[in-house]
Amino acid sequence: MNENIKLKLASLPDSPGVYQYYNKKGDLLYIGKAKNLKRRVSSYFNKQHDSKRLRVLVSNIETIETINVNSEYDALLLENNLIKEHKPRYNILLKDDKTYPWICIKNERFPRIFSTRNVIKDGSEYFGPYSSVKTMKVLLGLIKELYQIRTCSYDLSEKNIENDKYKVCLEYHIGNCLGPCEGYQTEEEYNEQITAIRNIIKGEFNEAKQYLIDQMIKYASELKFEKAQIIKEKIESLQNYQARSTIVSPTITNVDVFSISSDEEYAYVNFMKIYHGAIIQSYTEEWKKKLDETDEDLLERAIIDFSERFNLNSKEIYVPFELNLEIPNRKITVPKIGDKKHIIDLSLKNTRIYRLEQLKQTKIVDPDRHTNRIMNQMKIDLRLPAEPRHIEGFDNSNIQGTNPVSACVVFKNGKPSKKDYRIFNVKTVEGPNDFATMEEVIERRYTRVIAEGEPLPQLILIDGGKGQLSSALKSLDRLGLRGKVSVIGIAKRLEEIYYPDDPYPLYLDKNSETLKVLQHVRDESHRYGITNHRNRRSKNAFNSVLEEIDGIGPQTIKELLTNFKSVERIKNASLLELTDVIGKSKAKKVKDYFSNEKPTN
Q1: Partners of 255 in beta bridges
Q2: pTM score over 0.70
Q3: Cα gap 37→481, rounded to integer Å
Q4: Residue ranges of the chain with pLDDT lower than 70?
Q5: What whole-number distance in Å separates Cα of residue 64 and Cα of residue 13?
Q6: CATH classification of 255-363, choosing from 1.10.1060, 3.30.70, 3.30.420, 3.40.50?
Q7: What's the Cα-to-Cα distance from 450 to each of 224, 355, 487, rounded to whole Å?
Q8: Class in CATH terms, 377-536
Q9: Residue 123: count of CB within 10 angstroms of its CB
C-alpha cells in the first residue's frame, strides 16, 4: 500500500458513495458502491483475501477516487451508470436489459401505466428508477387494485371510439377496466384517476395506505388471515418505497454541472456530466489561489478549462450562482428548485467532502500548513487584528462556595501548551462570586506577565457571557491592556461569542474549525480547573483532621500524607510504622489521637 492510498484511506468519509480504483497507467480497474466509504474501501487493504483475482486487483491499485452521494440507494444507481459507461476490467459487465426499471405514464389519450427499462423521449412521464423490483411491483399492484386503468395498447382516439372500432375485453368484465374503448368512461374521469396515481407514485400515498389498512382489518375480521398478511406486506413495502432519485432524473439530459467551495488559500471545483438523466462522470480538483480571486472568477475559469480538457459540448450548464460568462451555443442556468437544484446540491456536497479529505491529508503530511490555515481562518472569523497564535483561556471552579480556584490554560498554534498552565487559589473573594473571581484572577495573571516581561497572548478567552467578560475587562483597563490584547467571552448554552462593548453576540457555524478551537480551550480550562479544585478539596479534608493533633505541624502532615497517601492509612498504621516516618515522640501523639477518637454513628 503506497503513501497516497494510506492518506486517502485516512481521510475517507463515513458516508455513502462510489469508489473507483486506478492502476499506475491511469486505467480504471474497478468501480464499487458503499454504504460507508471509509469502512468499505479500507476493507480491501486491511485483511488477506482468499480470491487470487481480488489479491491481484488490490496489488495493482495506485489511485483511489470517490463520488459522495446522499444514500446507499443513490450509490447503487450511480455505480450502475458508471460501470455501463466505463466497463472496468474487474467489474461484471452490466447489460442494458439488466438495468433498473421505471414506471411510465404513457403520453397518450387514456394513458397506460406500466414498467419499462427503456426511457423514450415521447413526452411520457417516467418515475424511478427502482433498485427494488419488488417495491415497484407492489406499487403497480396497488395502483391496479385501487384504480381501473386500461392495459390494452389500443389507439383510443375520439374517431376510433365513435366508430366502435374496439370492444371491451375480459378486463372490463372482471372489473379491472371501465371500458373507455367503447365510451363507457369519459376522458375527464379517467384523467382524474391518473392524477391520483401520479401523486401515489411521488410518495403521497396516505389515502392509499389507509385504504390498505382498512382492507387488512376487514380480512382479519372475516378470519381471512392469509389475505390480511398479503395486504400487510404491501403496506410494509410501501413504507420502504422511494419514488424518485436525486442521482438520476429523466428530465435532465446532456447537462454539465459545475460548483465550487473555497477558503482563503484554496478552491475546490467539482464537475459532473449528466447524460440521459444519469451521472456518467464526476471530477473534483483543488486549486491554490495566487491572488484574491473570487469564486465567480475561479468557476468561470474552471468551466473553460474543464470544457477543453474533457471535450465538453453540452448545450446547458448548471452552476450554483450567477456568472458573467457567455459561451456560444451553451446556456448557463442557476437552478432554484426541484431535481436540477438537487443535482447542484450534490455537486456542492462533493466539493465540501473533497475539501475535508484534503485538509485531513494536509494535517498528516504538512502540519504547518494546516496550522497556518486554521490560524488565518480564526483571525477572519473572530475579526482579530492578528492571528491568535497564543491563546489563554480562563474558567472558575467554586463548587459549593468552598476552595475556589481559577484555571488558566495556554494554547499555542491551536494546541495545548500544558507546561504553561496555571492555577490560581482565589484570595480576595468570599463565597461563590464568579464575576469578582474573574476580575481578581485576570489582574493577578497579567500583572505578573507584565512584571516578568513575558509576551502577551493575542487572544484571551473567558468562559462565560457578558458578566464574566465585563469583569475581566475591568482588570485589563486598570493594567492598561485594553486594545493591546483581544478578549472575548464564550457562553455555554448556545456557544455565543461576546465582544467588549458589543451587545450582540457572534454565532459561528457548529462545524466551524474556529469554534472547535475555542471549545477546546474552554473545555480544557474547565477540566483543568475542576481537577485542581477537587484535589484542593481532598487535600484540605485530609489536612483538617491531622491539623487537630497537638504538636503535629504542616511539615509533619506533609511527610505523613506523602508516605501513607490517606488519613485512613495513617489511622491504621502501627506505632513502629509511624515512628519510621516522623519519629517516636510525634508517632505516639498521632497514635494516641486516633486511639482516643470517638467512634462515629
Answers
A1: 274, 316
A2: no
A3: 51
A4: 93-100, 128-129, 131-132, 203-205, 208, 237-250, 276, 278, 280, 290-292, 398-403, 431, 533-544, 597-601
A5: 13
A6: 3.30.420
A7: 89, 42, 17
A8: alpha beta
A9: 8
